[in-house]
Design brief:
Layout lengths: L5 E3 L19 E4 L2 E4 L9 H5 L5 E3 L12 E6 L13 H10 L4 E2 L2 H18 L7 E2 L4 H10 L13 H17 L6 E7 L2 H8 L11 E4 H18 L11 H4 L6 H4 L6 E5 L1 H12 L8 E5 L15 H12 L37 H16 L14 H9 L9 H12 L28
Length: 449
Amino acid sequence: MSKHAVVLEYKRCRGCTTCIKTCPTEAIRVRSGKAFILDDRCIDCGKCIRVCPHKAIKSVGDSLARLQEFDCCVALPEPALYGQFQNLDDINLVLNALLRIGFHRVYEVSRAAELLSDYNRQECLNAKDAAVPQISSSCPTVLRLIRMRYPRLIDHLTNAVMPMELAAILARREAAQATSLPPERIGVFAIVPCSAKATAARSPEVLKEPVLDGAFAIRDIYLRLLSPMRELCEEGVQLEPLISSGLTGVGWGVCGGETAARPGQQCVVVDGVENVIRMLGEIEDGRIPEAGFIELNACTQGCVGGCFTVENPYAARMRLGALMNRLPVSRNCFLFQGPDRNLAKFQRKITYTPAFLLDADRGAAMEKQLQIQDLENHLPGLHCGSCGAPSCHAFAEDVVMGRASVEDCIFRVRARMQHMAGPGEADEYLPAPFRRQQPPAAKGSEPSA
């Protein structure tokens, strides 16, 4: 089973090459009429899920049937969930509805976000030798990007777990105390906005072992919540006051929310994976020396733009803003001391993952790099994707690494057909966009000046 939440359904795939052009890490190839994903390069950003016209790429979450495996089930709703509902004026309505679809308890991820906001503030005041600028560690896609492509920036990451992970640790502890059940009989499930967090739930980046029992996609839970929410409104019952966070925690659902809890610092907020990659390059080059903190969100507008959401991210951000106006600034402070203070910290350091390493031997890697450059110089440079790779450079790398043949280039096909056809043009063997001859003028058209 793949360690990633992003998977490809081969029966649906038609080899159209749409996905290979949008993958920010060039992790997808098309061979023999089907796409496949290079697992070591996938960062679970979900861009391929959005663009696949045949719905062949999808993200795998858990089924609600898993709730039957535990004696007590705790829901961890991400704040992005609240932005999916039109005309919602009370978050308690969503939290009470979660109790009607099979969960026994609710612990808001935004509550853990407020704890981490206060923890980061305390750490910022006490930090002396921290690398600057500090980079947010709350987006798992960004963590994977850094360990794969920007290892020199690992020391710039804030030493804090994701809100979802801290919420899981604290929720299990609270549920065990309240129910007297052993921790293994308590199921803790996150309701996540993206495939990256679904992957992080079962394969965490900075924890020694998973602290969640699974993750449900917001889009799946959203559909299940509609009827119970409507019933609660029609019944007119007094909602149980389950909300436990303020605008500081709920704000983490949109880009800029984490930064808002860092007053007094020079901060930069970035959203969109392409912009994140560009920013990481600039940080690595030292071109933003005045920034103290960089908040990076792989999804447009932050978590509300995740591939598991239902609503337009801009509309969801507007709705979250309206809900935040009704909330106090914060309801939580990080007061843990002693060993419990370490709950917010990395349990293991992120290490470099050489996904783009050509060879473990430096000399052999240099030789392969020269071969790639030489082959790329002899390719047309059109990045057409007909070879099944996203660019001529990626194709040259595939050839040198043994993943493809140089004869897969369509212009090599043209050369072979030219040789077989003898003297004359062989443009007819190329797709129309790559033919050198001008097509005959349409009948009745005016000659060009």
